[in-house]
Design goal:
Blueprint lengths: L2 H20 L3 H9 L3 H33 L1 H21 L3 H13 L3 H11 L6 H26 L6 H20 L14 H4 L1 H8 L5 H15 L1 H14 L3 H50 L5 H12 L4 H10 L7 H29 L12 H18 L7
Helix pairs in contact: 1-6, 1-7, 1-8, 2-3, 3-4, 3-5, 3-12, 3-16, 4-5, 4-6, 4-8, 6-7, 6-16, 7-13, 7-15, 10-16, 11-16, 11-17, 12-16, 13-14, 13-15, 13-17, 16-17
């Protein structure tokens, strides 16, 4: 396996580590700089996540189109460099507004995963794409194992320590990329940059002309809104429902990340080869339905840990769906597609944190009509069911 290929996997892994490092301490950090209750912290956590996602929505298609025009290497390296600086800002932030500013800047340059996916599409044959995207997902899962575990441990030394660790990781990966990252956009696949197609609406309009792709993007959007219930409220849900500490929250996220890596890196190629990408998407969402339904009502932290293998099986959905869409567009549109998918995912990250955090606050606050911390999982189940209906009614040239 070539070193640049390993660098791409490492980039995604370190990106996930940076995200996972800070998740266990976010509730305590927000209370530290803003004050208030845990329910208030959940709402501000939703605002921070939404600001980050809003910038990804606006700039995702632009960055994807830039990588089609100027190459994956410069876009990826600039993103990694600014990511490192962003974590430094978060590490020294003394107010909620500086945290918000850090999330805005970070969201603008958070192109690493989309650009890595475009790179993977560049170097993969059509029949390899599901497995290769699965490897990216597995790398993300490995990072998600290490990140929360490290974040939970480092959080014992203060709420700022995980941010410094994330800054160091991103900086080291930037240096590595300077030496090993090669360029995969060739003269034949290079596409001139155009603001008309780079803005979110223009990019959606252009790719919407591909048969069946609009329906797949809607299915992907609803799936992303639903599945984002985990990062949106897990830290708050598990602390409220089970009384977990940051260390325990990090451990649970680490177990999920490990099993997700096993599913995407080990099981996914065999599953798609045996039943195809379309059926993989369907079966994966059925596992999610079971997980959401049970998590909505359980009161046992032990049972929540037992459910993790079931919820991890849903990790087959994104790479299988991504492969279907990637094989639907031309080679010179891969960056644009990944940018649009990044924007769709970002839009879901705008909607989901505010929606899920609001539902959580509504059903755990003093004015709750019914005490039900797991209520956001019922909302997620309904949204994912709607997306599955759209997916089942959508056909493309490759399905």
């Amino acid at each position: 396996m070539r070193l640049p290929f390993l660098f791409i996997l490492a980039t995604v892994m370190i990106d996930a580590m940076g995200i996972g490092l800070i998740m266990p301490i976010m509730p305590d950090l927000i209370v530290e700089v803003k004050g208030g209750t845990l329910a208030d912290a959940a709402l501000w956590g939703g605002v921070l996540s939404t600001a980050f996602a809003a910038m990804q929505f606006l700039f995702g298609p632009i960055i994807g189109s830039l990588s089609d025009a100027f190459g994956r290497r410069p876009v990826l390296l600039v993103s990694l460099f600014v990511m490192a600086l962003d974590y430094v800002v978060m590490a020294v932030a003394g107010s909620i507004w500086l945290l918000l500013a850090g999330r805005i800047v970070g969201g603008i340059t958070a192109a690493t995963h989309a650009t890595a996916s475009a790179y993977m599409a560049d170097v993969s044959r059509p029949e390899q794409k599901a497995a290769r995207f699965g490897m990216l997902g597995a790398a993300f899962g490995v990072g998600f194992v290490l990140g929360p575990l490290m974040g939970g441990v480092l959080g014992e030394f203060g709420t700022r320590a995980p941010f410094w660790a994330a800054a160091v990781l991103a900086g080291l990966n930037f240096v590595l990329g300077l030496f090993v990252m090669n360029e995969t956009v060739t003269t034949a696949t290079r596409r001139a940059f155009s603001w008309a197609s780079a803005n979110p609406l223009g990019a959606f309009r252009m790719l919407g002309q591909v048969p069946g792709l609009k329906g797949l993007l809607w299915a992907y959007f609803l799936y992303s809104v639903a599945i984002y219930v985990y990062p949106a409220i897990w830290s708050y849900f598990s602390q409220e429902r089970f009384g977990w500490s940051p260390k325990m929250i990090g451990l649970s996220l680490g177990i999920f990340g490990f099993l997700m890596a096993v599913v995407q890196g080990g099981l996914l190629p065999h599953i798609t080869r045996r039943i195809g990408e379309r059926r993989t998407v369907i079966w994966g969402q059925l596992f999610d339905f079971v997980g959401f339904g049970l998590l909505a009502f359980i009161a046992s932290g032990t049972l929540a840990l037992i459910l993790i293998p079931i919820t991890a099986m849903g990790a087959v959905v994104p790479p299988a769906l991504q492969a279907i869409m990637s094989r639907s567009v031309a080679d010179d549109q891969q960056g644009a597609l990944q940018g649009v998918m990044s924007a769709v995912h970002a839009l879901s990250m705008i909607v989901s944190p505010l929606l899920m955090a609001s539902v959580f606050a509504r059903f755990t606050g003093p004015q709750a009509p019914v005490y039900l911390p797991g209520a956001p999982f019922l909302v997620a189940l309904a949204l994912m069911a709607a997306g599955l209906v759209i997916f089942l009614r959508t056909r493309t040239a490759v399905t």
